[in-house]
Amino acid sequence: GSAPPAPRPAVRFLHAHAGHLNPAAPVELAVARGRLTKVRVGCGACPGHRLGGRVVQHGLGWRSFGPPPAGTMLRVRARARDARHQLRRVSPVHIRVSSANSLLQLTMGPDGGTYGVGQPVAIVFNQPVTDRAAVQRRLVVRTSRPVTGAWHWFGDNVVHYRPRSFWPAHTHVSVTARLGHRWLAGRWMDGTHRISFSIGDAHVSVVNVDTHEMVVRDNGTVVRTIPVSTGRTQYPTHGGIHITLSKSPEVIMDSATVGIPRNSPDGYYEKVYWDVRISNSGEFVHAAPWSVADQGVANVSHGCVNVSTANARWFYGFSQIGDVVEILNSPNPPLLSDPGMADWNLSWQQWKAGSALPVGRGGGSTHRSGGVAG
Hints:
By secondary structure, the protein is mostly beta strands. The chain has 3 helices and 30 strands. The chain has a 5-stranded mixed sheet with strand order 2-3-9-8-5, with no helix packed on it. It has a 5-stranded antiparallel sheet with strand order 11-13-16-15-30.
């Protein structure tokens, strides 16, 4: 008698979970018991109602040119040659693409450029992370110099990485979030993301509220001692370690933005020059020609570090984003919810406690050139 017919080729969707596809990844099909010759993927939300793509791997699969529209239904019709090289129709297959809110996406920084020794790595997710440990396992840090560091979660959608102590000067840092296109803890992961940046010279400035001076060090060497005036009794400058967040040659400072009415005795609306921002709560190192007589003598500002115009201009040129500015002897504690103070005013034990994974026996993840920290 004649041989039984070869089993009909069948296609299946790769990267599908529970009957849904990842809306951030190209659609991939695989064929069993045959080789594809023609594939048509219907999609009501696609141009021409068809998702474009091509046959790959000599007929063993098909891949779309880009991701499908979120929340749509895909309908696959295909032809393939079976094990006996006979052209056969493949049974139609339908599958839904997950909605956009099923995606766990991120932004990560800094990326590119040179930063100060206090600069943390920051990752912000678009929605709460339901399994922090699973995500953290996919975060990889590489450094060109030996570094002990760890991740710390600030809530369910923000995680930072910092070393135990400040970065070594002239370290190159690269970070990879290897989320892939997979289903993880109730969310689709949104691919792989990479950043890299360099650490420049070690700029560490210490402002002493009691002695009214700022000592500026470059790679450990004192390069300038600057008379300052910090926050008066009613508005003391926050203490602790700040980092430089941004700088601008000119800023309009408005007391109303920090809760002081402009028309009150302490109110102001002023164009201020050579501004180095050290907190998001309104603290800067900036030129204050109006308080030069008090600089080095008394604290009269609304919380900023006042310096002369010449010193402000010099410090502005000296500063890098991520530089360290430490405020000593202030009665006002660090504001840990502020990005300028969030990272370095926690002890190493407190920092490690914010990791979703155990930090190594030595206190952190130590890694050299090409090394990895989880």
